[in-house]
């Protein structure tokens, strides 16, 4: 089974580092924290989430965070839950 690249999908997220300088994506929609894999392309600094057999463009890593994304193998995916609590999961971070 292949993946579907979803170009028209807009994913509202902030790409940053956590308090330990590890990659973190803060999503507006908590559904995206269920991504099993995050793909990082160092050439154009693009980040895609693989979720429900689809590949969704999240955005581009700011240049100053590029090194952290290149050296880590996992990433934290976080969002605010409707109950008001923050929820977070880890995903594999794959270099393309």
Q: Count helical runs.
A: 1
| Low-confidence runs | 1-5
Describe the largest sheet: 8 strands, mixed
The residue-averaged pLDDT reads: 88
Helical coverage, percent range: under 10%
Which oligomerization state do the chains in this entry correspond to? single chain
User: Structural class of the helices, strands and pairings?
Assistant: mainly beta
Q: Would you count the extended β strands for me?
A: 8
Instruction: Provide the succession of SSEs.
Output: EEEEEEHEE
β-strand amount? over 45%
> What overall form do the CA principal axes indicate?
globular
Order of strands, main sheet, comes to 1-6-5-4-8-7-3-2
Top keywords for this entry?
single chain, 8-stranded mixed β-sheet, disordered N terminus, 96 residues, globular, mainly beta
Explain this structure to me?
The chain has 96 residues and is mainly β. The protein has 1 helix and 8 strands; from the N terminus they run ββββββαββ. It has an 8-stranded mixed beta sheet. Strand 4 and strand 5 form a beta hairpin. 26% of the residues are buried. Residues 1-5 have low confidence and may be disordered.
């Amino acid at each position: 089974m292949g993946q579907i690249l979803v170009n028209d999908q807009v994913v509202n997220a902030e790409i940053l580092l956590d308090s330990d300088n590890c990659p973190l994506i803060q999503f507006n929609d908590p559904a995206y924290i269920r991504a099993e894999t995050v793909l990082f392309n160092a050439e154009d600094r693009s980040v895609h989430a693989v979720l429900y057999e689809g590949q969704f463009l999240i955005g581009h890593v700011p240049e100053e965070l590029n090194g952290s994304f290149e050296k880590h193998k996992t990433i934290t995916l976080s969002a605010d839950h409707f109950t008001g609590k923050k929820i977070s999961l880890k995903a594999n971070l794959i270099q393309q």
